[in-house]
Write a structure and sequence with these properties.
By secondary structure, this protein is α/β, with parallel strands linked by helices. The protein is built from five helices and six strands, in the order βαβαβαβαβαβ. It has a single domain, classed as 3-Layer(aba) Sandwich (Rossmann fold). The radius of gyration is 14 Å and the shape is globular.
C-alpha cells in the first residue's frame, strides 16, 4: 500500500506582520502540528519520504511533526517549488520520490492541497490549517500511481478540531 499524507501547515501569523513566505506559526499552529505528529504515530503512519514547502510556516510545521515522531525519513526535501503549489507541481515533485518509499508526507498550502485530494480521490475535502488528508492506493511505481486520478482512497482526515 502506498500512502500520501497531505498536511496543510499549522495556523500562521497574520499576513500584515510578515511577508507571506516568512510568516511563522502561532502557538496554536505549533500545537496543531504536534497533534498531527502524535496522531500519525498512534496510527503507525511513519513517513519514509517527506517533501516540504520552504515557507517558514511549513518548515516549522515539519519541525514540530518531526520532533514529536522522532522522524528520520530516508528521503527529505525542502522545496521552493512547493510554495503555494498546485496539483501539477505536487505531481512533479512527487515524481522524484523513490519507488521503495511507501509513505510520503507532503507539507504545503491551500488551495493546492485540498484540490489534490479532489483530483486523486474524486472527493473534495477542504483542509483547514493544521489538518491532514490520508490517501491510499495499492503498491506500484509512484509515477504510475500519481497518474491515476480518482482512484486513490481518502482514508481519513486528521486535525485537532476534527471529531470523525
Amino acid at each position: 500500500m502506498k500512502t500520501i499524507i497531505l498536511l496543510r501547515h499549522g495556523e500562521a501569523e497574520s499576513p500584515g506582520k510578515f511577508e507571506d513566505h516568512e510568516r511563522p506559526l502561532t502557538a496554536r499552529g505549533h500545537s496543531q502540528a504536534q497533534f498531527i505528529g502524535q496522531a500519525l504515530q498512534s496510527r503507525g503512519l511513519i513517513p519514509d519520504g517527506v517533501i516540504v514547502s520552504d515557507a517558514k510556516r511549513t518548515v516549522e510545521t515539519y519541525k514540530n511533526v518531526k520532533d514529536v515522531m522522532e522522524l528520520n525519513p530516508r528521503q527529505e526535501v525542502v522545496s521552493s517549488r512547493f510554495y503555494l503549489a498546485g496539483v501539477d507541481r505536487i505531481f512533479e515533485e512527487m515524481a522524484a520520490i523513490e519507488d521503495d518509499i511507501n509513505t510520503v508526507l507532503l507539507i504545503g498550502h491551500n488551495p493546492g492541497w485540498s484540490e489534490a485530494i479532489g483530483v486523486y480521490t474524486g472527493e473534495y475535502e477542504s483542509l483547514g490549517t493544521g489538518e491532514a488528508g490520508l490517501m491510499n492506493i495499492e503498491q506500484g511505481p509512484w509515477l504510475e500511481l500519481l497518474g491515476r486520478s480518482y482512484q486513490w482512497q481518502l482514508k481519513e482526515k486528521l486535525g485537532a478540531s476534527i471529531t470523525r
